[in-house]
Design brief:
It is built from ten helices and 14 strands. The strands form two sheets. It has a seven-stranded mixed β-sheet. A seven-stranded mixed β-sheet has the order 10-9-8-11-12-14-13, with helices on one face.
């Protein structure tokens, strides 16, 4: 069965996500802000959840149609083949979003979609009442510029929750974004990756998982594992075994993860062990403003404080000045810094060679990239 699948992501990660989908062998059909649509079979449903590092969720797309009225929404939803997925005893709750559309009331849209699905299933199964006691198929609608897209969520818990981070720091970096900035830094086996503001260790952990080819979803479950189309768990079992066999145990990659807080370092170590990459990362206490270059090639990748929960604006500006001085002594090492501060470059003391706009959840950020050696 050929399915149309939709992988959602944080704004700014669409290109990385699309390249991941290509690498898995699936054909992309559309890309828009925060989502990539592609074609795959039943096996792709589980494989995408298991392997995509930059996706937040994976959906099965039932269809899309113009919906400028509630009648349009009802009839368009009712015309879709819900019985191909949802059994007569399965649960099918509804949620969704409406943006820049005539239909803007999400609760009203939820009610209309639910009624339409019920009527479709009633006609298919010849029953009027649904107990909704078995498999849960979360229906999600997305109405954008009067076009409604109806989907079934296959992920369950959002994919950035890998399962290794039981405890995070005061300002945690989402795992999908950590993986993205690690990927943008172009990690290599013969180059040390060092995060001097490691917090709970997410950047170093995600990079180590990437460099050892460890699927990000190996230690968690997905909603689709109970779906009938996946063959009673057979596909999931096969794909997990395949992913385990593809882990690179002989990788020479090494990461340093340091922080000024010894308590958060203990959490980071536990997270790395839970993720299966504890042997790839050296955790130690250090002040980022005082680190010194080692006699080897290296890349600094970090997410220093930028929110008022951790430091005052004046303290943050002072920190950026001090790390600017410290990191300049590391040349020709490359430096990648994620922050939401709009005046970062003036404080840091050097214009970035490249800037990439990203989002940490709903917080707009910039990844400042320094990859050219200091001029003498």
């Amino acid at each position: 069965m050929t399915l149309e699948l939709v992988a959602t992501c944080l704004f700014g990660l669409e290109k990385l996500l699309g390249e991941e989908i290509d690498a898995l062998g699936y054909k992309r059909t559309d890309t828009m802000d925060g989502r990539v649509t592609f074609l795959g079979d039943e096996r792709a449903v589980f494989a995408a959840n298991l392997h995509l590092r930059f996706a937040e969720r994976v959906f099965i797309k039932l269809g899309a149609f113009r919906a400028e009225s509630f009648d349009d929404l009802f009839e368009g939803t009712k015309a879709l083949p819900w019985e191909s997925f949802i059994g007569k005893e399965d649960a099918f709750p509804v949620k969704g979003h409406a943006i820049k559309s005539k239909l803007f009331s999400v609760p009203d849209c939820q009610s209309i979609v639910k009624k339409a699905v019920v009527q479709r299933l009633s006609e298919s199964y010849g029953i009027r009442w649904f107990n909704e006691e078995k498999i849960k198929y979360q229906i999600e609608f997305f109405i954008f510029k009067d076009v409604a897209t109806l989907m079934i969520d296959t992920s369950g818990t959002a994919l950035h929750k890998r399962g290794y981070r039981a405890v995070a720091g005061a300002a945690p970096l989402r795992e999908t974004l950590a993986a993205a900035i690690a990927a943008i830094s172009r990690p290599r086996e013969d180059v040390l990756l060092w995060d001097p503001f490691c917090g709970s260790g997410t950047i170093a952990i995600e990079c180590a998982m990437m460099m050892t080819n460890q699927a990000p979803g190996l230690d968690r479950s997905f909603a689709c594992e109970s779906f009938d189309i996946l063959g009673d768990g057979k596909i999931a079992k096969e794909e997990r075994a395949k992913a385990l066999s593809q882990i690179k145990h002989d990788s020479a990659f090494e990461a340093y993860a340091s922080d000024i807080d010894p308590q958060i370092l203990e959490i980071a170590r536990e997270n790395a062990e839970q993720a299966g990459v504890g042997d790839r990362i050296r955790f130690f206490e250090a002040d980022a403003r005082k680190i010194e270059k080692l006699d080897r090639r290296g890349t600094i990748v970090c997410n220093p404080p930028y929110g008022e929960r951790l430091m005052t604006p004046r303290e943050i500006e002072r920190l950026y000045r001090e790390i600017g001085e410290a990191f300049s002594r590391l040349s020709p090492w490359q430096v990648y810094i994620l922050t939401s501060s709009e005046n970062f470059q003036s404080c840091y003391g050097k214009r970035a060679d490249k800037i990439r706009k990203l989002y940490n959840g709903m917080i707009p950020c910039s990844l400042y990239q320094y990859f050219k050696p200091n001029s003498k």
